[in-house]
Amino acid sequence: MTTVRVRGIYTTAITGLLDDNGLDVVQASEPIRERFDRPFAFAPADVTIETTRDRQGVELSGAPDAVASVVSELETLAIDTFHWESECPRGAVFDAEVLEAGGGGGAVVDLGDGRRGYLQYDDVDGYVDTGNRYRVQIHEPTPPWDDDRPRVVPTLEVQGGLCTLSRDRTGVSAALRGERADELVGMTDLLSVSIPDGWGLRWQQAAADADLETMEAALERAVDRATAIEDALADEADEPGDPTRLAAPRRTGWLWFGRESRFALDEARRRVETTMPGHHRTKAADRAASAAVDFAEAVCGSSETELDGTFPFDAVTRQFGPTEGDRLEIGHGKPDGRRISLGYGDVIDWDADGTVTLERTMSGGGTYDALGTPKETGDVAVTKFREGRWWYPTTYKGDDGSSKGTYVNVCTPVELFPDEIRYVDLYVDVIRRPDGAVEVVDEDELEAAVADGLVSEPLAEKARSVAGAVERALSK
Question: Which residues of 327-361 are buried (b: 16+ CB within 10 A; e: fewer)?
Answer without folding.
Answer: ebbbbbbbbebebeebeebebeebeeebebbbebe
